[in-house]
UniProtKB/TrEMBL annotation:
One of its GO terms (molecular function) is isomerase activity. Keywords: Endoplasmic reticulum, Isomerase, Membrane, Signal, Transmembrane, Transmembrane helix. This is C-8 sterol isomerase. Its EC number is 5.-.-.-. GO terms for cellular component: endoplasmic reticulum membrane. It comes from Wickerhamiella sorbophila. InterPro entries: ERG2_sigma1_rcpt-like.
């Protein structure tokens, strides 16, 4: 690439990013339906209603019931075992089930029965990770002591910020992302080409995501 082309592309890229950032703060929030504070409260209510040693599956089922009551039109009707899929992203591997997916928001249960560690990714979205069972550790590059998030805690990953993270065996969370959701999809799917070759999980993720997104568009939710 010659310097002339670079001189044209860099300003265009800068303007594009600035416009996207402005729209994220002013335009996109009008399409959000989920309240991060209320979601954390729902998770805490689910935890408070169960025994302290309740298994992750029971906590997620209770959380799903409360979410369905709060957002009846936009949460899946049931947590079907066949809708859980492997997710490989940032060299971390876990399992997820989609509760909601649209162009500006997604809501999932994510975790791992055996634990995982990796890179959060750098996203054009805000991410809110509310712990339901287990614990999450996270750290910025200059950290010598990890951040620690316990059940009921919400870990906010702002737009454009990235960290290293880990969750030990049996840890699960409710994860909300708000922003340019399609821009996040390559991060969540690229490892099928670079390492896992797990075409079945890739295909299932694509089908479920498209089903949710188009279904919500028909409801007027982008």
């Amino acid at each position: 690439m010659n310097l002339t082309k670079l001189a044209l592309i860099l300003p265009l890229l800068f303007v594009t990013v600035r416009v996207m950032d402005y729209a994220r703060l002013t335009f996109l929030p009008a399409f959000y339906i989920f309240d991060k504070v209320r979601l954390q409260q729902i998770c805490q209510e689910a935890l408070a209603s169960l025994d302290i040693d309740a298994p992750a599956q029971k906590i997620m089922e209770k959380t799903h019931t409360l979410l369905k009551k709060e957002y009846p039109e936009f949460i899946v009707d049931e947590l079907r075992p066949e809708d859980w899929v492997f997710n490989n992203a940032g060299n971390a591997m876990g399992s997820m089930i989609i509760l909601h997916a649209s162009l500006t928001e997604y809501l999932i249960f994510f975790g791992s029965a055996i634990g995982t560690e990796g890179h959060t990714g750098t996203h054009f979205a805000d991410d809110y990770f509310t712990i339901l069972h287990g614990v999450q550790y996270a750290a910025r590059p200059n950290a010598s002591i990890a951040e620690k998030y316990l059940p009921g805690d919400q870990h906010h990953m702002p737009y454009g910020v990235n960290k290293q993270y880990s969750i030990p065996a049996g840890s699960f969370a409710l994860e909300l992302a708000q922003g340019y959701i399609p821009s996040m999809l390559p991060f969540g799917m690229i490892e099928v080409l670079t390492s896992t070759l797990d075409v079945a999980s890739f295909a299932q993720t694509c089908v479920l995501t498209a089903k949710h997104m188009f279904g919500n568009i028909l409801k007027g939710k982008i």
